[in-house]
Amino acid sequence: MTDKNNKIPFNEDNYTHNINRNNERKLDRRGFMKTLVGAAGVFAVSSLPWGVLAAKELNGLGDKKYPKQKIIDVKSLPIGDAVDFYFPGEHDSAILIRLSDEKYVAYQNACTHLRCPVFWKKDEGEMLCPCHHGKFDVETGAPTAGPPRRPLPEIYVKVENGTVFAVGVKRYEA
Amino acid sequence: MKRSYVSVALLLAILMLNIIATQYMVHQYFYENYTNTIGAAIINVILFPAAFFIYKKGVKIND
Ligand code: FES
To answer: What residue in B sits closest to A51 (Cα-Cα)?
Structure first.
């Protein structure tokens, strides 16, 4: 039994025994060079999407454009106060805080924990989420206490002729 | 049967350059240096016709 099954019938570089092609399994110099050229081709093709994405970023197509939107008149927002608004969509609640004469910050105020609305605590100088006492830094939107781990998305604001406008949303960076 | 392995060596060098350019490209993309990304991508694309050319030459000389 052992001897019967353990024999190689004949010496041949062909494991199928019904296809005959000369040197099918041999990788010669030319075949190796072909493989290398093929590899170069694969590299070239796989570079294309990166180039396209990078070009897109360079042209600023990665940033979404929103029409600028009036938030409030400067004179109706005293320093240290906050006002709620909606940007960029009508269900994206946001908050604008006037920190000083010139300095305004705005964030989308859905808490990054479970999306409760975040409030501005004027006397404590920080943003508070009442649901689980998450706190955010008012200057950057970064979480400082409680369950939230991600910063609040920042909204770019611009002041023109005594009116505060929302002009864009900062891209999310993890 | 005198064979030159110069073209094989050149192709291997191109493969090495491909690897370097690809790694550079991906890293520069995430570092947001998009001009460098495009440069590396162009290098990668140009290396393919170069490799093909070297292959053609190598085959002609030796066979
Ligand atoms: S939802 Fe804001 S802390 Fe939980």
So the answer is: B38
